[in-house]
Write a structure and sequence with these properties.
Blueprint lengths: L4 H10 L8 H10 L1 H7 L4 H13 L4 H12 L3 H5 L20 H15 L7 E5 L5 H10 L2 E6 L2 H14 L5 E5 L11 E3 L12 H11 L3
Parallel strand pairs: 1-2, 1-4, 2-3
Length: about 220
């Protein structure tokens, strides 16, 4: 904990190095005092330097992005299937009520996004960071769109492709293992669900330049 700050706090708990008889109360206390704790539970300067070097090595260049995604998402679909809902959705759900099932909340989120995009039959959609294909399924099956889904994870791509074949949507959905910076097609709409935080601030201008260039006038 002294070396890694708040991350060390979490990791040491997972490793069984500490416990609390009232975790809910502890987390509530942490949330109520978040600003103070963040400013006072910090790793030492040497660790900050090492972390900075680590982040530089894993910068979101094309090669860096591939390494980062592979390290996270290529752990295997069986691993993610253990704790994701049946839609295999990793991003946050949108609940209509407190007791709504997670899968329904995920589908509701996709429909809300489709409505925000004003999806129309025949629209060509680019999804940057398509995951296991949840949004692509909804866009193709319910709104009649043609979807190109991008991922850098071979595991995700294999799952999403099989999913579309099983649903009879492989003629409407193309899943690519491709960096968004390498796309040259034109699209009517572009969607990216909770992928932007992985872009990295240094690459924000490039990201939006690519989106602008890929949209049809």
């Amino acid at each position: 904990m002294l070396i890694s700050g708040e991350l060390g706090l979490a990791e040491s708990f997972l490793q069984g190095e500490w416990d609390s008889p009232d975790l809910t109360g502890l987390f509530a206390f942490g949330a109520a005092n978040n600003d103070f704790l963040i400013s006072n539970i910090k790793p030492p300067s040497a660790m900050k330097l090492l972390n900075r070097l680590h982040h530089c090595r894993n910068a979101n260049t094309r090669d860096g992005s591939r390494r980062n995604i592979a390290a996270h998402y290529d752990l295997g679909n069986d691993f993610y299937r253990q704790w994701l809902d049946e839609t295999m959705t990793y991003s946050s759900a949108l609940f209509a009520s407190f007791d709504e099932p997670l899968a329904i909340a995920q589908q509701g989120k996709y429909h809300r996004l489709a409505q925000a995009l004003i999806l129309r039959r025949g629209d060509r959609i680019l999804e940057i960071g398509c995951g296991w294909g949840g949004f692509a399924e909804i866009a193709a099956q319910h709104y009649g769109c043609e979807v190109v889904g991008l991922t850098l994870s071979a595991e995700q791509a294999n799952y999403a492709r099989q999913r579309m074949v099983q649903l009879g949507l492989s003629d409407k959905v193309e899943i690519r293992v491709q960096d968004y910076r390498d796309v040259t097609d034109a699209f009517d709409k572009i969607v990216s669900i909770e992928m932007f935080e992985a872009v990295g601030e240094a690459y924000w201008p490039t990201y939006f330049d690519v989106l602008r260039a890929r949209l049809t006038p």
